[in-house]
Amino acid sequence: MSARRLLGAIEAGGTKFVCAAGYGAERAPEPYRRVIATVTPQTTLAAVQAFFADIEREAGPLAAIGVAAFGPVDVHRGSATWGSVLNTPKAGWSGVSLVEPLARFNCPVALDTDVNAAARAEVSLGAGRGVRTLAYVTVGTGIGGGAVIGATSVSGFLHPEMGHIRVRRDPRDEGFAGICPFHGDCLEGLASGPAVLARWSQPMSALPPQHPGHEIIGGYLGQLAAAIALMLSSERIVFGGGVMSNPHLLAHIRAAARRELGGYLPIDERVGGFDRLITRADLGDRAGIVGAFLLAEARLAAEA
Ligand code: ZN
């Protein structure tokens, strides 16, 4: 694989598609980048095609394209609906193929969830360098989690949907029904950005430091972190997403996870403590697009 081969990368999100092209994940910032609003599939995907067509005219053919997609999405390469968005509340997007519009570029395409891709990015180039098992959790409009074990991201009949686990209620939060259309008070229904807004009429970033919301939301996310540690034995659990821009939250997540685990797992001895186990995304909001480049690189390597 030549290092000069031009790669495409797409972070397909519910509010925007970040498209980029360049010569590898490590070569930031990528030379070509365009942010496209997520509106109707027709408009958005036509703009994605136009971006890569412009790139090819200017820089030559793409060698591979990696897609880090919002879920739920069919990540099974052998499936007839591979690369299609599954049943989503996002109007007009259910059943839409994210890979079919890329066929015209005649190059290998790789696709994974945005959080699995971000986990891949953080373990290769970010907060998880040197570890084998890492989970990535984004807390924003929704809550999603992905994980990488070795060089492989976790998938099965679908992909992890960590945001929809049940958590134990904080007694100070009994009156709130939760906002998940499927489960009401699942983790996403209680701790996503819109759930914070629905309860306290302001975003996490605007809550005063003494507001109990920090401890409540941190407590719920800490329960997820503890569950991940118990189920996957992840050596790093990386938190990203808009809600995490709140500077107080991470400490509450660590404290809650420590409480939940009750000294059962050897986190201090084997991982170096909860500050190392539970951390912020090193790559910040670039984790998704870097992960998309890594997907493209891995696909090229697999086809070589
Ligand atoms: Zn739910």
Characteristics:
5-stranded mixed β-sheet; 10 strands; 304 residues; Nucleotidyltransferase, domain 5; alpha/beta; binds zinc ion; 34% helix
Could you explain the architecture of this structure?
- A hairpin with a 2-residue loop joins strand 7 (143-149) and strand 8.
- The protein is 34% helix and 18% strand.
- It has 304 residues and is α/β, with parallel strands linked by helices.
- The chain contains nine helices and ten strands.
- The mean pLDDT is 95.
- Helix 2 crosses helix 9 and helix 5 (213-232) packs across helix 6.
- It folds into two domains: 7-114 and 285-303, 2-Layer Sandwich (Nucleotidyltransferase, domain 5); 127-281, Nucleotidyltransferase, domain 5.
- It binds zinc ion (ZN).
- Residues 164, 180, 182-183, 186, 188-189 line the site of zinc ion.
